[in-house]
Amino acid sequence: MALISFTLLSLILVSSLSIPNLAHCKTLKRDVKALNEIKASLGWRVVYAWVGDDPCGDGDLPAWSGVTCSTVGDYRVVTELEVYAVSIVGPFPTAVTSLLDLTRLDLHNNKLTGPIPPQIGRLKRLKILNLRWNKLQDAIPPEIGELKSLTHLYLSFNNFKGEIPKELANLPNLRYLYLHENRLTGRIPPELGTLQNLRHLDAGNNHLVGTIRELIRIEGCFPALRNLYLNNNYFTGGIPAQLANLTSLEILYLSYNKMSGVIPSSIAHIPKLTYLYLDHNQFSGRIPEPFYKHPFLKEMYIEGNAFRPGVNPIGFHKVLEVSDADFLV
């Protein structure tokens, strides 16, 4: 019995030594300083939830709301900051860029104003940057192109202006790029087509110009792109047959532009094309027969164009249902 008790005691001691005591880990002073600066700049709306001196918690008090920490060696570091939908007013908190271990920054649905500071490029480990639904303005800083780990970039529903920086093409892991509902001008950099993992590109509701042909001019471009939203801009020209090379495409949204010409039948051979929005442009001619036989195409919006008589949109939303017998008239 005594031998068993000694063995059990030894196991407990070994186990207690092998498991780090997280309660006694200190939070890196750099992160504590940055979070307190952020707390001061954000004002009363977060103060009620940010209690105590240590944003990662001090044993008696929990971590600050929206703050996630991880243990690195003998210290804790802030890895996620999520403060959204609390009507924060004021400029983007520059102190955020001192949280060098951040992997997620989510400040969406607030009332942040002013530019994103160029220091944003310091956050080398950032994977998700969500700033949508704010009042941010000025140009999108090219320094975002230094965030090599970024997979999700949400900048939609702001007041950004100027051109889309071509430096975004330096983000090898980027999968989702949301830029819609801003005041962006110029052309979409064709360099974005070199992003091997980009699945979703939404640049709708801006003031962009150019042609589809210019956008896809790089050979082998957009190999993983599933959804392409270019609606409500000022794109001109036609739909090039080469667009069929984007074989992963499922949604193509070109509504409300100034595009023209006939619809090439090659587009109907995009294997998984499901939704095609062509309405409110200046397209002409007939709808090619292969669209009628497409195995996945569900809806094709065509109203507000100059298609030949007999190609009439139907339904409540004036959608041409590809199963309708009038499709080939």
UniProtKB/TrEMBL annotation:
Question: Which superkingdom heads the taxonomic lineage of this protein's source?
Answer: Eukaryota
Q: Which residues form the Leucine-rich repeat-containing N-terminal plant-type domain?
A: 29-70
InterPro entries recorded: Leu-rich_rpt, Leu-rich_rpt_typical-subtyp, LRR_dom_sf, LRR_N_plant-typ, LRR_R13L4/SHOC2-like
Query: What keywords tag this UniProt record?
Result: Leucine-rich repeat, Membrane, Repeat, Signal, Transmembrane, Transmembrane helix
Q: Answer yes or no on keyword Signal.
A: yes
Instruction: Report the SUPFAM superfamilies cross-referenced here.
Output: L domain-like
Which Pfam families does this chain map to? LRR_14 (PF23598), LRR_8 (PF13855), LRRNT_2 (PF08263)
Q: Which residues form the signal peptide?
A: 1-25
The Disease resistance R13L4/SHOC-2-like LRR domain is annotated at 96-203
UniProt cross-references to PANTHER family, sorted A to Z: OS10G0469600 PROTEIN (PTHR48065)
State the name under which the record lists this protein.
Answer: Leucine-rich repeat-containing N-terminal plant-type domain-containing protein
Show the taxonomic lineage: Eukaryota, Viridiplantae, Streptophyta, Embryophyta, Tracheophyta
